[in-house]
Amino acid sequence: MTLSREDIVRLCERVEGAQTRAYAIPKLTDEYPAMTIADGYAVQAELRRRFIAQGHKLIGWKAGLTSKAKMLQMGVNVPSIGFLTDRMARPESSAIKTSDLVHPRVECEVAFVTKTTLTGPGCTLQMVLDATDYVLPAVEIIDSRFSGFKFDLPSVIADNGSSARYVGGGRARYPDDIDLRTLGVVMEKNGEIVTMGASAAVLGHPAEAIAMLVNILAELGEVLPAGSFVMSGGITEAIPVKPGDSIVARFQELGSVSMRFID
User: Fold this and answer.
1) pTM listed for this prediction
2) Mean confidence (pLDDT) of the chain
């Protein structure tokens, strides 16, 4: 790590201000060019500590940048993780405000709900499947707080992986009942198909992304508790949204998730 405790607190306050008051900031490495991935997780951990102290409830985690499409779109080369709280959740078919977001974009993901605790290092795809209670379709509304949606890996990790809102829905299924590698997904925006993909885009299998997440948690000295809600990462590129837009994400075998956006 290159950041001092004082630097971590300072950068956390910068990210927290941008997240809670919805304004763009320069990426953190503009001022701290030597910042590392470990520094990014230290800032993220401080952000999580503050949110929990303010009454937010930790619901689970998200894997980010897990598809080649997303890595290419964002100019990074390894995945990342971020935390999810109850205040980020929105009901299915609800109206989601954009006035408290900076650059909202939506992406289709497979979400996992765990029934036993997962620990790393060495967590595998099969261990994830064995520990999964059920899977369901989800849409994540990501929102980078960095100007122009442009960032590098240490900065986006500090910004909690661009986490903003998430919506789960559709049909919950047991992982043994479907082939999670080959789920087709179509996203419609205002009735027009805007992107499509297959779940294998996420590291070959979405459960592989959850294993990766558990192993990163182990590096941070943490485990994935039973009952966690975990998003496995975008299957396709992220699509920008604005007030007036309606989104429907249709998942093979898992049903659909819909929402609309208002000012």
Assistant:
1) 0.96
2) 96
